[in-house]
Specification:
There is one protein chain. The longest helix is centred in the first third of the chain and has 18 residues, at 3-20. It is built from one helix and eight strands, in the order H-E-E-E-E-E-E-E-E. It starts with a helix and ends with a strand. The chain has one helix spanning 3-20, and strands spanning 27-29, 33-35, 38-45, 50-62, 65-78, 81-88, 95-104, 107-117. Strands 1, 2, 3 and 6 form a four-stranded antiparallel beta sheet that branches. The chain is α+β, with helices and mostly antiparallel strands.
Length: 118
Amino acid sequence: MSARYRTPCFYGVLIILLLLGAGCTSTAIGDVTYTNGTLLVPVTCSGEPTDAFVQVTVYEIRDLHQQEITFRQVPVTLRQGANEVLVPLSLPLGTYKLYVYILTPGDRQTATIRDIVV
């Protein structure tokens, strides 16, 4: 095999090995609910267990405008299958837009926007 063909093969194998060792290969965020000062964020992981952070940025919706009021970041170990992440957060009555991110060291796995009414 010539050097011209070894380099792409090497990088292809390297990429496959990185993907296999990356932990949770696919995550999905379900419908977020709010109860007793806590956001419940359902997260589904289709790969191996991995350490991550769930970050929630909260925007208040008032008079057709949104304004950031707070954010929280919670460390979590995502296991394969369904996970429930509890994010302690006290919100007064109102309408909110939540930006929910799943973050792993050096990478953002997925993100979604959810609307809730408290």
